[in-house]
């Protein structure tokens, strides 16, 4: 029997009708024995997520403002799910106790209650035991996982139960206080369980059918990505393609557990499988592409720079002192360009330039802003001549000026810098060049 860790995101548990879909999905496969849930998310676009309401509840508490209206919204949502599904859980009692003791609760404890109550209802609905994440997940003060303690607790729980429902997003610190991950962190909980349980697969059910090859707001009906490697995903997520919490990849990758992104509203769709290697032949030479605006380049030229040892290091250490992280450094013989995120130097650019001039006395220093980066990603591109040529030729044909080019020797990513106004067009042109049926 295979072991699947099955995680449902906020939209999959937003209301009773979504709970019904979850039950159908879980019951359709006896391997789906360990279920992780988020807090109820939005039921429609102008609705609120329970977690957002809980943050609001906490803000009211902190400023000593009457929170009864916000509390009522939260309470009603849970009671409605319970009543519509005909469950017995006396949830009002526990909710009211929480509300009465708000003043003694921390912010993290308050916001964790969305997943806690949701998991309790889901456990009763599925007929599974409820296991509290507070008894299992140990989080260090820097928010990293205490793997040893978590492993020991989870193994003990697994000896007791061969199936359960588990709330995502939180755990406890060594002092017993509740701690939460960053937003969307229910994905991380699922990945931790999958890692420790050595699951055969980590299923992550959400409201989209996996990743698409390009942003559907830019490319019409982009092809789905059915298979992607962890490193390809990392490149695309970095550029803004987000479906899964970034920190959820590492625990799965470490034990080589495939992550399957699936759609609760369209369970028949193939979704996206993320794994280290895939034997499934790829249909296109690229796996996907993504881009983002807001970069800025600092060009530095100094006669005979190539003979000077340590020149680049001195420039980079100025940026380090200002806590600016560097995206790319394309270079010439006596010049190089440092590409950074514009927002990071917004307040300090003039000081940084002044400092660079003082430290290394360049002959020329030039700043260009409003640069967008577009990354074209695909493991099939490596050791395959012709792809870079095709990409640049297509952009040239369409008169798109390239400001910068970066490709490391891993060859799974070609990044071009273009003017922000050309961002969408660049994505469209590259997509149409490579994705033809
Ligand atoms: N409920 C939390 C949030 O809204 C965590 C999650 O949904 O994964 O961020």
Low-confidence stretches: none
Bound molecules: aspartic acid
Tell me the helix content. 25-40%
- Number of distinct helices: 13
Give average pLDDT, whole number.
94
Q: Please trace the helix and strand order, writing H or E for each element.
A: EHEHHHHHEEEHEEHHEEEHEEHEHEEH
Strand content: 15-25%
Q: Give the CATH level 1 class of the largest domain.
A: Alpha Beta
Based on secondary structure, the structural category is alpha/beta
The major sheet is characterized as: 7 strands, mixed
Please list the strands of the largest sheet in the order they lie side by side.
3-2-1-6-8-9-7
Instruction: Tell me the total number of β-strands.
Output: 15
Global morphology? globular
Instruction: Say what the CATH topology of the largest domain is.
Output: Carbamate kinase
The CATH H-level superfamily of the largest domain is Acetylglutamate kinase-like
Radius of gyration: 25 Å
Structure description:
- The chain is an alpha/beta fold and 437 residues long.
- The chain starts with a strand and ends with a helix.
- The protein is globular, with a radius of gyration of 25 Å.
- A hairpin with an 8-residue loop joins strand 8 and strand 9 (272-274).
- The longest helix has 20 residues, at 107-126.
- The protein has two domains: 4-274, Carbamate kinase; 288-434, VC0802-like (2-Layer Sandwich).
- A seven-stranded mixed β-sheet has the order 3-2-1-6-8-9-7, with helices on both faces. Strands 11-12-10-13-15-14 form a six-stranded antiparallel β-sheet.
- The chain contains 13 helices and 15 strands.
- Helix 2 (50-62) packs antiparallel against helix 5, helix 3 packs antiparallel against helix 4 and helix 12 crosses helix 13.
